[in-house]
Design brief:
homodimer, five-stranded parallel sheet
Chain lengths: ~160, ~160
């Protein structure tokens, strides 16, 4: 029932705790992990115009360059995580996209026909996240499949 | 890794979807389910004084009687669910308590040494719940173990 799992990561501590759990799901029958990072387009919207203001290139070009650079960085990090998963005996598929995290996570869960999403209890929260509620909470509300939420161990029990 | 699971239920549709999932976890290695219902003391606080106002018994006695009746009702419902779980090949332990649901769920998870909590994405929400956020969200923040959240199938995809 866990053959194909979606593991979205924003590279936070919380996502790291979820990664350790994903590896252990091998013993519960997991075979393949769809490894996803969504570069949050809302973060860049808050600052790309500033960067564009002191560059001589057209603003759209500046934005495009930033996104390309960030996606490249994310891809590098994902490759490291992919290796860990493979060493744990799991097959992997790697996806990096730009967008609104909870929307892309729900979309990939549907498109990739996974049976479970495993994610951290809270990610790196930007301004928009604090207003709208965490990505995890929104995924929970809209996911077509169950969501397994993992809290990092280093947080105090009973804490916020 | 899922040998002993905590399944808290408020008897909502959402909890019903989680129940179906718990049964299936048998194939992933689940052996025993701690079946918990928390009678929400905050709900009764909102109306027991009204009921007391037209009865001749002392108010505390009225409150006690209501809680006793509600716990008895809950116990009856839990026995039905227990039977379903046993038919699915799972051992069970049944707990009914009065309290604040998220607090009791986290407490039982610790006391009973479970490795996973499986629950619905949203329960029957009273006034207090709407102010403070759902029980599921609060359990997620304070649970000592991962929380597997199941959304009922009849909700529209992409809905709230």
């Amino acid at each position: 029932m866990f053959k194909r799992i979606l593991y979205p990561t924003d590279f936070s501590n919380s996502a790291g705790a979820a990664l350790e759990y994903v590896k252990k799901l091998r013993e519960a029958g997991a075979e393949e992990v769809v490894l996803l990072h969504v570069y949050d387009e809302r973060n860049i919207d808050l600052y790309w115009e500033i960067e564009a203001s002191y560059k001589e290139e057209p603003p759209e070009q500046v934005k495009h360059e930033i996104v390309k650079k960030m996606l490249g960085k994310s891809y590098g990090k994902l490759k490291g995580i992919e290796k860990e998963l493979q060493q744990a005996g799991l097959k992997t598929k790697l996806i990096v996209v730009e967008g609104v995290p909870y929307e892309e996570i729900v979309k990939v869960a549907k498109d990739e026909n996974v049976s479970l999403i495993v994610m951290g209890s809270h990610g790196e929260r930007g301004f928009v996240e604090r207003l709208l509620g965490s990505t995890t909470a929104r995924v929970m509300r809209e996911s077509p499949v169950p969501v397994l939420v993992v809290r990092p161990k280093d947080r105090k029990e009973g804490g916020r």
